[in-house]
Design a protein that fits this description.
The protein is of the alpha/beta class. It has one domain: Ribonuclease H-like superfamily/Ribonuclease H (Nucleotidyltransferase, domain 5). It is built from five helices and five strands; from the N terminus they run βββαβαβααα. The chain has a five-stranded mixed sheet, with helices on both faces. Strand 1 and strand 2 form a beta hairpin. The protein is globular, with a radius of gyration of 16 Å.
């Protein structure tokens, strides 16, 4: 069973705020990487975000970061309840081979985890996220942080910023879970 979400509906209005209380399940947004940014929209409407590190210790085997990532996802479900959909940054180009491998491994773990739980998931292209939050598809990290802060949020770094931008995109252009 493949649970990729359909494209955003025609006529979606960028920047439109939707009441989160209308959602009955959690929307999760992720910026996958060694330091993963995350943002959650629970049914009560209070957005929550942060970062989590999956940097392996020198004693870890190659798969430990991915097992920790899966365990962390299970913890999220235990903490916030049923997840209705997951949106993640869809990266097509990486600056290093190592970054590409880490992203690919985390993405494989995430999509398998979603499939096992029948959770809908969707990758959002980097340019789409940047254009949505800043108005420019080639915005730099500083512009992204500034745009998210202008909406009243206080991300700690660019990882959390990207996750917040993905979450806001999902809620405002897609309407989140209905």
């Amino acid at each position: 069973m493949f649970h990729v979400l359909p494209e955003a509906p025609q006529g979606a209005v960028p920047g439109r705020r939707l009441p989160l209380a209308a959602h009955n399940k959690v929307v999760l947004a992720l910026d996958l990487g060694t330091t993963t940014g995350w943002a959650i929209a629970p049914p009560d409407g209070d957005l929550v975000s942060g970062t989590v590190s999956f940097r392996p210790s020198r004693y870890d085997g190659g798969g430990m970061r991915y097992l920790r990532f899966r365990a962390w996802l299970d913890t999220i479900v235990g903490d916030v309840g049923a997840i209705g959909e997951v949106h993640y940054e869809e990266v097509r180009r990486h600056l290093s081979t190592d970054a590409a491998h880490v992203h690919g491994g985390l993405l494989a773990m995430l999509t398998a985890w979603c499939e096992e739980r029948s959770i809908a998931y969707q990758g959002v292209p980097v340019g789409t996220i940047k254009r949505f939050i800043t108005g420019r598809g080639n915005a730099d990290k500083a512009a992204m942080i500034e745009a998210v802060r202008a909406r009243g949020y206080s991300p700690a770094d660019h990882n959390e910023t990207d996750a917040m931008a993905i979450l806001l995109w999902a809620l405002e252009t897609r309407g989140g879970v209905r």
